[in-house]
Structures are given as C-alpha cells and as structure tokens.
Amino acid sequence: RTVERVRRFVLEADPRHAKFATRLLGAVRGGETWGEIVEAIAEGLHDAEPEKLVAHIAVLVEVARDGPEAFETRSEEIMSFLVKRVLMQPSPVDKVRLLLAVILFSSTAC
Q: How far apart are CA 23 and CA 20, in angstroms?
C-alpha cells in the first residue's frame, strides 16, 4: 500500500517530489519497479504537460543513474524525444536576445 503511494508520487507529483519518491522507491524495492515506471513514462512523453515532463525527466535521471538496465529498455526512444523535442527547441530567451541584438544593431547603425 505504501509502495503504491510512493509509485503514484513518482508518476504524478511535481519534479522535486517525483525525484525523491524515485529514490525512496529504489531504496525500498531495490529498483524492481523501475522497468514499469520507465514504460509508463515513455508511453506518455509525447502528451505530457511541461510541468509533468520536467517531473518525468527528473525520474528518468534517477532511474538511469541507479538502475541503468531499466532505463536501457526504452533509452533510444527517450533520448530521441529529449534531443528533438526538448533540447533542440528554441528558448524564449533566444528570441528576446535576438530582438535586443536587432534593436541595438539598428540603433548603432544610424
């Protein structure tokens, strides 16, 4: 019963709680449920809300660190998603910096 509650935190909590729930679950269960968790997260990556995506990434980091064999089952799909849909996306800061550079360049060119 307690393990199920912790597992629910792993899959549904905010990033900080999910991270520490993953550590707790690994300590209590020795990582035996990590395969199920990786499967559940991998299935929902494409549809996850931004806050939930951050929490899922935090969980995946913990699993990859402490239970790499569980992470490896879906690592290609997860890494491909992270590179294409997270890392390669332009950040809003880049757009602001570009706009500032254009404004500064146009004001110094005059």
A: 5
Residues 6 or more apart whose Cβ sits within 8 Å of residue 28? 3, 6
Amino acid sitting at position 37: I
Q: What is the pTM of this model?
A: 0.79
Q: Is the dihedral of CA 63, 69, 73, 77 positive or negative?
A: positive
Series of mean pLDDT values for 10-residue runs along the chain (110 residues) = 92 94 90 90 92 92 91 93 84 70 64
Report d(CA 83, CA 5) in Å as an integer. Answer: 31
The C-alpha torsion from 73 through 78 and 79 to 84, rounded to 10°, is: 160
Judge whether 59 and 41 are in contact, CB under 8 Å: yes
How far, in Å, CA of 108 to CA of 75, rounded? 49
Count, residues in the chain: 110
